[in-house]
Write a structure and sequence with these properties.
It is a single chain. The protein has 2 domains: 50-294, Rossmann fold, CATH 3.40.50; 305-371, no CATH class. It is 27% helix and 22% strand. The protein has helices at 9-29, 34-39, 50-54, 107-113, 131-147, 151-156, 169-180, 223-228, 254-268, 275-278, and strands at residues 61-67, 77-83, 89-95, 118-122, 157-167, 186-190, 206-211, 236-241, 289-294, 317-320, 330-333, 336-339, 351-354, 358-359, 365-368. A 9-stranded mixed sheet has the order 1-2-4-3-5-6-7-8-9, with helices on both faces. The two termini are 44 Å apart. It holds the Pfam family PETase.
Amino acid sequence: MKGKPHMTTTARRRQTFVAIIAMLLASLALSPGADAQASNPYQRGPNPTQSSIEALRGPYSTTTTSVSSFVSGFGGGTIYYPTGTNETFGGVVVAPGFTASQSSMSWLGHRLASQGFVVFTIDTNGRFDQPGSRADQLLAAADYLADDSSSAVQARLDDSRMAVMGHSMGGGGSIEASSDRSSLKASIPLTPWHTRKTWSSVQVPTLVVGAENDSVASTSSHAIPLYNGLPSSLDKAYLELDGASHFAPNSNNTTIAAYSISWLKRFVDNDTRYDQFLCGPNHTADRDISDYRSTCPYSPVDPGDPGDPGTPGGECVRTHTRNHVDAGRATNVWGTAYAVGSGDNLGSHSYFNYVSLQSISGGWTEVSSCP
C-alpha cells in the first residue's frame, strides 16, 4: 500500500497560513463596527444600545488612584480609568458644586470610566469658590491629568481629547472653562449656576442639563438662559429632568448618565453611533425628561489623523508589542503582512511592522513585510 504523499514544511506553513487568514476574515465579518473603528481611531467599545448607555458599568474594568489635596491649582481628587487594555481614552474632569466635595460626584467615576474614559473627580481649593475659580481649577486638573498624573494613568490617557463637567457652580465653571479653552472636546454643565448668561465665544460642544423643580438655580434663571446664550451654530443640547431638584446630579441618575455618556462618546470619541440617542428619539416622550432642545443634526465628524503608520516610503521598523494591533499597524505572517482595526487580537507576543498600508477587502490591509 502506498503511503500518503509527503507534505513539505513550506506547504504545511502555506496551508496553515490560509486557514488562519480564513478564520480571521470570518471573525472580522462577524464583528460589527470593525471597519468603522479602523476609520475612526477614537471609537471605543461595542455597538451601543439603550441598555448599554443606561448600565451601571460599561465594558471596561476600572481602577482608581488618589491625587493629594496639596497639588497645585485645585484641591486634589480621584482618577478613575480603564484597565486590562492597551487602548487610550479621552479625559473628563468633573467639578462639584458650591460647598460640596468630590464625593458628591463620585458616582460618575466608575460609571463613565467603564464606558471608556479617564475620569477625574476633583475637590476645589475652597468650598465657596465661584464659577470663575472653578473653571480655572477644572483646567488646572486637566493639565495635571495630562502632565503630572501617574504613568499608569498617562498610559491610558489621550490628552488631546479632554472634556469638562460640573454641578451647580461647577457647571457654571465648566461653561467658563470651555470659553477659556476652545481645544476642549465637550462640556456638560449639570444644573448650572452662573451670573453671566452670554457665551457667544464658546466653540466646545455643550450639553446643558437642567432640573424642572430646581429652586437653587432655576432653569428659567440659569440653565435655559445659559443654553440660549451659547452660539446657535454650536453643537449643543438642553435636557431638563422631569420633577427633579437642583441636587439630582449628586446621586446615581440613569438619564444624566445615559446622555452624558452619549455626549462624551459623540464629541470626545467622534463616535456617530451615539447620534441615535441624542438626535433620534422623541425625548419628551420619556417621562424622565420634561424638555429637550438641540441643534441636531450635529456637525459631520472629522475622523482625524490615525497616526503615521511608520517610516516614509514603506520602510519597515521592527517593534514588539503584546496582544494588540492598533489601526495602521500590521503583523507579518509568513512573508506577507496583514492588519485589522484597533483592538483585534492576533495573538500574544507577536511582532508588528510599522509600514505604509494599502487597503484591500474586508477591512484588512496588505503590505510588504519587513526583510
